[in-house]
Structures are given as C-alpha cells and as structure tokens.
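Working notes for the structural subgroup meeting. M.R. asked for a predicted model of this chain before we commit to crystallization trials. I am recording the input and output together here so anyone reviewing the notebook later can reproduce the run.

Input as submitted:
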Amino acid sequence: MGRFSLIRFRLFFQIIYTIVSNGYMYGFLNGKIYKGSLKYTCVPGLNCYSCPGAIGSCPMGALQAALNKRNFEIPFAVLGFFFVFGSIFGRFVCGWLCPFGLVQDLLHKIPFFRKRKQLAYHSVLKYGKYVVLFGLVVVGSSFLFTGFAKVPAFCKFLCPSGTLMGALPLLGMDEQLRSQAGDLFYWKLGILMVLILLSVKVYRPFCQYLCPLGAIYGWFNRFSLVQIHWEKDTCISCMACQRVCPINLPPEKISVSTECIKCGQCVEVCPKKCLHFKK
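Returned structure, recorded in token form:
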C-alpha cells in the first residue's frame, strides 16, 4: 500500500462531487435543464442552474433571483444558506466543492508556460471579487442597472461557469438556440476563453480575483469549523508550506486568511506535521 496522499484524495473528491452534483444525464443527452424538486435547493459551490446536468441551484443565482423580485425583501433563506455553509466550511467549499474550481485546477496542471501563483498587483486585484459581489450581484440585482430593469448582472454578464457548463452544452445540442446566440454570448465566451488561458499559467484566477462566492465564504474563514491548525511551537520555519501553497500564504495566515481555500497542500508537505486539519 502506498502512502496516503491528501492531494490525490482531494482531486478524487472534487471529481466525484462534480459528477454527482451534475449527474442528470438525461439533460446532457437531450439538451434539457432539470427542473425537479431538487432544483429548489442550492449546492455550495459555483454550479450553474442552466447546466443540463445540474441537480441543484447555484447560490449566487439564487441570491440574485431573490434580490430581483419586484418588491424588495431580505433574502433570509439564501443568507441563511451562506451562514450555515460558511460557518462550517469557509472557503473549504472553494477548494473541495466547486466544479469551476476543479476546472481551473485541471487547467493549471497542463505543462505549458511558466507557472505563477498570482498576477502582478495581486494585493489590489484580489479585491476585485468584492467589487463583483457588490457591484454586479447586489447592486445589479437590487437596483436599476442597464436601463430601467433589475437584472442578475453577474450571471448575465460575467459568470464563466454559466458559459462553460450551461450555455455551451445547450447551444451544442440545440440548433435554434445557436441561431439566437448574439453579442452577449460572444462577450461571455471571450471572458471564459481569457480565464481558461490564464488558468493554465496562474492558479485559479477567477477564484482569486473575480468570484463573489469566494468573497462571501472568505469572511467566514477565520471562525469556520473546518480549519487547518498550525502548531506554532513545533514549527521549524522551513517555509515548505508557503513554497507549496498555491496562493503563497505563510503558516500564520493559512486557513484564517480570506484567500485560503484550505486545499491541504501545506498539510501534505509539512515535515514536522505541525499543520493539520483541526480535529
């Protein structure tokens, strides 16, 4: 028996979770969106409602739908969902339970280009996801945007998961839909292509700089139940954890930083085992 690899287990878990949460095979075979009772519940990661295989709703889409209502109401159900999953997992959701996160992880494994953890001006660009959250998700859904109507602006104008997992499969199976594809589709396709190419070189660029769901879960990172614990007294400051960390976090910021997705690579590489998932 070989030594247990947390990194391989994580990849296996991501793949299985993505298959299960997008397991409506009839939808892929017939170009139909599942609209059964399960669609009234949200899955924790960024998983497009319009994906033919999706069996649940995306929490970002659900939040925008709630804010889109004619008479403004506080979306207690969706906010409660974020509080529950955020309090338990934090950005562990991003690292383990997000299909589009898996897509970026796989793209980054392609052996092209010299790999980078972050873009230049990362310290400024990382706040982009908060701009998207408030500008597109909240303002775009709650107030006047692009004229005189509320719109789910994040889903409509930016979300790459919707393009990859929803629009492309549906267009591929429906000639009538293809004939109706216009400038908006090509705009979003362009965004997706840029992110795909960027993901080969830079680790999870969408997660780091644009994802509003990651912005929300990041607020819970410091006190969520799932934590990577650092035993400072046994640490020898070899910094192996920071070298392997895909977003370059030192040990004191692992798990508590709003940027940490709790992928576990630091746990795997620590020679003194002073980093471990909290028991």
